[in-house]
Specification:
7 strands; 186 residues; 32% helix; alpha/beta; globular
Amino acid sequence: MTGLRAALLAAAMLVAAAPVHAQDKPAEPDDYRTENYRAPVPATLAGVRVLTTAEAEAIWRDKSGAFIDVLPRPPKPNLPAGTVWRERPHLDIPGSIWLPDTGYGKLAAPTEDYLKRGLARASGGNTAALLVIYCQENCWMSWNAAKRVLSYGYRNVAWYPDGTDGWERAKLPLANVEPEPREGEN
């Protein structure tokens, strides 16, 4: 019975690790996703080039595009006064600009301004510059952000849906980054 159990467990692990195929992915919604952000994402995003890890790596190695991570910043916990708290390092594709909290379905005006300023910095003010938007695998934040960047008039937007998860799986380098400062921050 132990051999049968091991075989069943191995089969279950293979099914769980199986890649999600395009036919298993949800259809593109008409608007931004506003809930359940960590879920399977569509295979496409109208008007945006969808990148594989190999394509993202080629752009990164050629330095032909700006990489923008939109993964939210974890909130600081409510700790007793005097407690020392250290944020966990945020690992990104080296050279990326981290614009946290800009991938939600609805953005407050200051967050939207923060995104626009970050995009202008990343693109050098050139709406034809290649912008690669990502976060983590199966995260709607990057899908929302890429859609929003396109709506701002940027014409060369790419979405890397596998994000840092796919990058790490390919054993590509990651670097610790700090978020792009918001207005009024040091």
